[in-house]
Amino acid sequence: MKIIFLGTNGWYDTRTGNTVSVLVDTVDACVIFDAGFGFYKAKDYIDPGKPVLLFISHLHLDHIIGLHTLPIFKLPQGIDIYAPKNIIGPLRAFLRRPFTTPPLLLPTRLRFHEIRGKERFPFQFELAPLRHSVPCYGYRFTSEGAAVAYCTDTGVCGNLKRLARGADLFMTECAMPPGDKAPNLFHLTPETAARAAKEAGAKRLALFHFDPGKYPTFQKRREAEDAAKKIFADTIAAKDGTVIDL
Question: Please, which residues bridge with residue 25 across strands?
């Protein structure tokens, strides 16, 4: 299994990266989490012989704006887009005029799926709501004997730790800077992310979704990584293009 970080910024693109999107290449499928502007890079990694499954965490624009780049994709297998009911409906409304090119005019076929808990995926799968300002979901799946958890845009909550429990790779946000003491119910610091990983018994932690205003340079990301490592040693602050093999 190969995990490729296509975009690692929150909110907006800067020289440190595009907004969030993560591709997980498994034996059976190409799984993509979120579609910030980093999503456009997925076209360079997708195997045309594998199904493509895109999971959307929530409807903030930094997680779906990359869908505007779909006209450059030419995938014969199409893309299956998954999200809970309260996300998939508005998402379909976004993917039409006047906002962007409607699905009927795209060279790649899109198929939309409301997650109801009865889906059959080529891997073990679960989702859970996270703590955010709008409905937002974290995802976890197990393939090739490895468990991966993807939890972005969240404060500390029980479901964050539940999805991360025993994960071989726990990917979570790091919007707030090290040592930030301001109360924030909806985002994590490197320390709170590291404590969640430790309490969940995760094996590796990858930080992403960095607020570009608080992390204007890669040095700031290194400082976040160092702060997290004091609590959870096997931590990496991801950049666009970071690859992790499991």
Answer: 2, 30
pLDDT for the residue 183: 73
Q: Which domain holds residue 155?
A: 2-245
Query: For the chain, what percentages of helix, strand and coil (3-state, to nearest 5) are there?
Result: 25, 30, 45
Q: Which CATH number does the domain housing residue 214 bear?
A: 3.60.15.10
Torsional sign, CA 118, 35, 22, 198: negative
- Intervals of the chain under pLDDT 50: none
Q: How far apart are CA 200 and CA 115, in angstroms?
A: 25
What are 51-89's pLDDT values in tens digits? Answer: 999 999 999 999 999 999 999 999 999 999 999 999 999
- Residue reference for tokens 């992403």: 208
d(CA 69, CA 62): 13
| Contact by Cβ (8 Å): 78, 109 | yes
Q: Which helix (H) or strand (E) holds 91?
A: helix 85-94
User: Distance between CA atoms of 191 and 180, rounded to whole angstroms?
Assistant: 9
Number of domains composing the chain: 1
Residue 9 sits at φ, ψ, to 5 deg, of -85, 150
The C-alpha atoms of residue 56 and residue 54 are separated, in whole angstroms, by: 7
